[in-house]
Amino acid sequence: MAKGRSHDRATWLLALPFALLWAPGLGLAGMGTAGLSFLVGGLLLSPDLDTRSNATRRWGPLRLLWWPYRKGLSHRSVLSHSPLLGTAGRLAYLALLALGLAALLSFFGGPPPQELLGWAGRLWREQRPLVLSALVGLEASSWLHLIQDGDPMPRLPRLLRRR
Q: Cβ distance 20 to 1 under 8 Å?
């Protein structure tokens, strides 16, 4: 299992080659989106957000947002360290936090959650190739992390393991 520095080093090292893969189809915008999302996925949305990790510390004072996530999942669980499911879970967690915050701030004149969902839908309709390159970048950095850990398949939840 790799240490945090090894994960970070590999993320920085492979972000540019990953971004260059998107140049033929999406040009500079696709390269920038894919490369940046690869960095964000590896450095801020790492599968290790279920522990006290470098990724957690990078959130600064906002790391408290990840406390319920960390307490609700055991390290290397199927919900944090699975291909596709892990990244989807972290993005869903962030989306729920954003919608909850929007609901609270709407009382003070902020945009209501429905407006945020409308913006997200419009972004998906108008910039689908870039959104997909961002999602693939997030997932690719997660796969890099899982492969470095030596086993991209996580442990089963305690309830499903045989004794």
A: no
